[in-house]
Amino acid sequence: MGFPYLEAVVGFMIVLYFFETYLDLRQHAALKLPKLPKTLEGVISQEKFEKSRSYSLDKSYFHFVHEAVTILMEASILSFAVLPLFWKKAGDFLVYAGLNAENEIIHTLAFLGVLMIWSQITDLPFSLYSTFVIEERHGFNKQTVWLFFRDMIKGILLSIVIGPPIIAALIVIMQKGGPYLAIYLWAFTFVLSIVMMTVYPILIAPLFNKFTPLPEGELRQKIENLASSLKFPLKKLFVVDGSTRSSHSNCKDEEEVVAVIAHELGHWKLRHTMYQFVAVQHIVTPIQHLVSFCLNLVSRAFEFQADAFAKKLGYGKPLRAGLVKLQEENLSAMNTDPWYSAYHYSHPPLVERLAAIDESDKKTD
After folding, report:
1. What are the structural domain ranges in the chain?
2. Is 315 helix (H, G, I), strand (E, B) or coil?
């Protein structure tokens, strides 16, 4: 009798679910705290805090239900051999359509098509509730039902156009890779990621949001001067209009905008982006969550460094103000459980970032 891999995977999923639920319960308790963290007292209004608390608790309750249904479905799919059934049904469809079900590439694409349909159907109720109940209740949703489904259809069509060539290439690599399979797969995913990073803002993102050039003026001049001082190869500047979908906001004050951009350029200057990109290539199941946790630790350290970089350029105060405004306007959680945030957050909580900025001020003094 061989090793029970299926039972081990399902068991691991269930253990992970209970661990993450424990962290969710800790965070839920933190969200229920009736007072602001001391660092934010006098910085965030009580009215905004109450709105943030209500919004975060609504999302937390929804998250409990969503995760419970998700683990139940995923465990059932594995335990009751649903995936082999999908594979067989995909093959039956190909035979019915007069296609070659023995062709591994065609059969795999049909199988993934079945999975995509299943995923869309099972996730749709949660997406609708999140958008048209929770986001609507707290004044963030700007989407119409038509726009919601139009975006969904666009996403499906993009998957149909982009997915098959990528899947086909991966299958060919696995068929021909031999002893160098891992190297070929890594090289392919690396090149693919670079291509997608280049293509996405040019061809894909404009399908969902309106991009307009940032007009000439003081803000554009400040951003160009900042980029030039850091030798960043800035070519174009655009304003993204996401207001047709959500009222979640970004910074609007000019100095705060430049400060946040200085933070982001800090990631580029300190070579954070490439490090994270290369590290992500090594994420494999079933240690994905462990690696993801470690990457979050690295990412959080990078955020502190980028904040310090922006402050060093003289943008400490507007960066601080911008971070507070983003937190306040988007009703982000003010109280966070340290275990929960360490495990889930790629960015440090606002309280920790402000404390770090203030601490550097004290050291400077």
Report:
1. 144-209
2. helix
User: Which residue, 244, 297, 309, 322, is CA-closest to 271?
Assistant: 309
Nearest to 154 by CA among 193, 206, 108, 197: 206
Q: Which residue has the tokens 């960066």?
A: 319
Could you tell me if 148 and 128 are in contact, meaning their C-beta atoms sit under 8 angstroms apart?
yes
Mark the binding-site residues, compressed into ranges.
263, 267, 303
Only one residue has tokens 């209970």, namely 18
3-state helix, strand, coil in the chain (%, to 5): 75, 5, 20
Tokens 């360490």 belong to which residue? 342
Residue appearing with tokens 């400077």: 364
> Considering just the CA atoms, what is the radius of gyration of the chain in Å?
24
* 24 in active site: no
Contact 304, 353 (CB under 8 A): yes
The catalytically annotated residue of 74, 123, 136, 264 is 264
Question: Which of 24, 135, 256, 307 is labelled catalytic?
Answer: 307
What is the mean pLDDT for each group of 10 consecutive residues in the chain (365 residues)? 73 90 95 89 88 94 96 90 88 89 90 90 94 92 90 91 90 85 86 86 82 84 85 81 65 73 77 49 51 80 88 87 86 87 86 83 53
Q: What pTM was estimated for this model as a whole? A: 0.76
Which residues make up each annotated binding site for Zn(2+)?
263, 267, 303
Structure tokens at 152: 């969904």
Q: What is the C-alpha to C-alpha distance for residues 337 and 32, in angstroms, rounded to an integer?
A: 11
